[in-house]
Design brief:
heterodimer, A: 289 residues, mainly alpha, two-stranded antiparallel ribbon, 4 strands, B: ABC transporter involved in vitamin B12 uptake, BtuC, 2 strands
């Protein structure tokens, strides 16, 4: 039972981190119909900027904000500079974002080296307690709380604000929204920047969570996030949440009991979902076909 | 008739030059580079069948290349480098690649193309992790890789070179026939206007699957040859950078031109080897992948037809304008 609880909490912690990436990815896809293959690169740069800043200033909150800011700035530059000229050209869009991913993950090695950096946990978040035989790690709980707050804020933003209304309408029919006199291109930029900021923020959180940042972490996280949005359904924030928790908990259990199989399991879960429900658990059929 | 004779003569001449190329350029490193160019050239042409002719993007094509390399490597090691193990390796590689491509196609090709790109990336990366995992160590030797010995009749640089060259020529010929065939025309139709092909009653899913299977077989055989040329295989063949490299070769050479893949492979591999030499004296050239990344983005943005595609387009334009002017005269 104690092992069970520890694994579940660990899985939810991982899931909270995954959710931040997957939510941005799925939001961007829902509105812009673009899968951002550079999302892992934004996460990577968020992580490096935050870790570097924390090492220099020891200001944890500032590091988090800068991580999110780094993601947002890169995201806006990408959307305005590259993607903007390629809408309605799906193949080239996919190719371009993958090219940006390549540049981002190679360029990070120039100033920071190929071996990665240590990312210490700030002292006020580095406690851990033993309740019964269950280990409670403070930073894990912090991540879970942050993930839950981000979900609630996104939910509020999408359901209760005017911008959210425009976004949801744009997901249904972007052309019609534009015909109503709403500058949909600017909304595209805002959503892309929001998703990119979430990725950078997740990177800033992930540094202390895993204890280090490495050039390969972007691609690894991106693959997990892709599997999650395919499972949850592309374009659905709820789907991203459920998919993240599912993948987090399943991976946590598998890597404890069958460490050699843990890689296969997420892919197998994805395969099963694709066979039974190709559009994903929360996706709409027309978004997939 | 006259034209045909010229064509055959050109083909024979090209074959002869190709087979004699290592004696002209001198052996050693250059021959190894040429072997790589031809195996990766075949790999890139198989990729162009997907990207350039069917219009679908795979970010995990290395899974075929790597599967071929590992199957051939394991067969040669287990079979003590006999000719039989070489043949078995090639056949087994084809069978496995067909099964693999059918499974991946069934999972991902029924949906939008974005799904295909994501799922191939995820599946490809799984192969990378599996090849390096402890569970498969008895077979794959995990992260250390396998050193491979080849059958006696292949045990010279020149023999291996000839094998790679002839394989590349055969692939180029067969794929060229394929893209000109009625099926190839339908694939181009899918690339240009998928919904119209659906409306015309073609089973788009089946044609895409066929393209994926054929492309997978060629890529797998190219991987099998790669391990023979290198006499070594490691998890690197499954790495996402292998998929990116072949994408880069196809795009720079020219998507939808088939032979552009070979040209791109030559450009990229020669540039890579030059950069590695330069990196010995100037360490900054170690980061040449950034340069490739920037080049890749620039080519997609400003030269979407690649080198060969742009040349062909210019030639077509000039022909058309001269004919037009002549008829006016």
């Amino acid at each position: 039972m104690d092992v069970f609880l520890t694994l579940v909490i660990g899985g939810i912690g991982d899931g909270a981190l995954y959710f931040l990436i997957a939510a941005g990815l799925t939001l961007i896809f829902g509105l812009l119909q673009v899968i951002n293959f550079a999302h892992g690169g934004l996460y990577l740069w968020g992580a490096y900027m935050a870790t570097f800043l924390y090492a220099v200033t020891h200001q944890f909150w500032l590091a988090l904000i800068v991580g999110a800011g780094a993601g947002a700035v890169l995201g806006i530059a990408m959307e305005r500079g590259l993607l903007g000229r390629l809408y309605h050209h799906g193949t080239n869009q996919i190719l371009i974002t993958m090219g940006v991913m390549l540049i981002l993950s190679e360029f990070v090695k120039v100033p920071f080296g190929v071996n990665g950096l240590n990312a210490p946990t700030p002292s006020f978040l580095s406690h851990s307690w033993l309740v019964g035989h269950v280990v409670l790690v403070e930073y894990q709980w912090f991540t879970i709380v942050v993930g839950a707050m981000v979900y609630l804020v996104l939910h509020w933003l999408l359901r209760r604000t005017r911008l959210g209304m425009v976004i949801r309408a744009g997901v249904e029919n972007a052309g019609l929204v534009e015909a109503c006199g709403i500058p949909i291109r600017n909304v595209f930029t805002v959503v892309f920047a929001l998703g990119a900021a979430l990725a950078g923020f997740a990177g800033a959180l992930a540094g202390p969570y895993f204890g280090s940042v490495t050039p390969g972490m972007g691609l690894d996280m991106q693959l997990t996030a892709f599997i999650i949005v395919v499972i949850g359904g592309m374009g659905s924030v709820q789907g991203a949440l459920v998919g993240s928790l599912l993948v987090g908990v399943v991976t946590s259990f598998m890597s404890f009991y069958f460490p050699s199989l843990s890689v296969l399991v997420t892919v197998l879960v994805m395969a099963v979902v694709l066979l039974v429900r190709p559009q994903g658990l929360f996706g709409e059929a027309r978004a997939a076909a | 008739m006259n034209r045909n004779i010229v064509r055959y003569a050109a083909a024979v001449l090209l074959l002869a030059v190709g087979l004699l190329l290592p004696t002209i350029t001198g052996g050693g490193g250059t021959t190894t580079l040429l072997e790589q160019v031809f195996t990766f050239g075949a790999f890139a042409m198989s990729y162009d069948l997907l990207l350039g002719f069917t219009g679908i993007i795979s970010f995990g094509h290395a899974m075929f290349f790597g599967t071929g390399a590992y199957i051939m490597g394991i067969c040669l090691v287990r079979g003590n480098a006999s000719t039989l193990s070489f043949v078995c390796g090639a056949m087994l590689a084809v069978v496995v690649s067909v099964m693999l491509s059918l499974v991946v196609a069934f999972l991902s090709l029924r949906m939008k193309d974005t799904y295909f790109a994501m799922i191939t990336l995820a599946v490809g990366q799984t192969f990378y992790v599996l090849a390096g995992s402890r569970a498969l160590q008895p077979w794959t030797n995990a992260n250390d890789g396998i050193t491979v010995f080849v059958p006696d009749w292949l045990n010279s640089d020149y023999a291996i070179y000839c094998l790679c060259f002839l394989f590349c020529v055969a692939v180029a010929f067969l794929l060229f026939q394929f893209v000109k065939s009625p099926v190839g025309v339908i694939l181009k139709g899918i690339r240009d206007n998928e919904s119209r092909m659906v409306a015309l009653g073609h089973s788009v899913f089946r044609y895409k699957t066929a393209a994926f299977v054929i492309s997978g077989i060629v890529a797998t055989l190219a991987g099998a040859l790669f391990v023979i040329a290198e006499m070594f295989v490691s998890t690197q063949v499954f790495d996402v950078s292998t998929s990116i490299n072949v994408l880069l070769m196809t795009i720079i050479g020219g998507t939808g031109t088939l032979f552009g893949g070979l040209l791109g492979a030559a450009v990229i591999l020669i540039a890579q080897s030059e950069f590695s030499t330069l990196a010995g004296t100037y360490p900054m050239f170690n980061d040449y992948m950034i340069l490739f990344g920037v080049l890749y983005v620039l080519v997609v943005l400003f030269l979407p037809r690649g080198i060969l595609g742009t040349i062909l387009q210019e030639r077509g334009r000039r022909r058309w304008t001269t004919r037009f002017l002549n008829s006016n005269r």
